[in-house]
Amino acid sequence: MNQSNFDTTSEEYWQDIFDSIEIEVLPVEYMNQVNIHFKDGTVWEVDIKDSLKKQTLNDIEDSLDELFEAYEEKIQNIDFRMDMDKIKKDVAKRVRRFLKVNK
User: Cβ neighbours of residue 63 under 8 Å, at least 6 residues apart?
Assistant: First the structure.
């Protein structure tokens, strides 16, 4: 595949990539916010960007893990709001690097 065939700014390009990803772990570094929806209707919003001003990524990951484990039975669903611009930038960089190395 020719590198010039990749338009990393097109929505179709990114939709194809995101459709093919199977996510088992979401890196906190790519999160903007986590919304935790409880069975009783309560919603907790965790602002990751703001939390990074006070804690390290590892501390935030540990806190989220503890929170999810402690409230597992009461949580209905969790909505992860991702930093899509950061994801796109990092994926594009890795694709360019991969194509350059594998010419």
Answer: 55
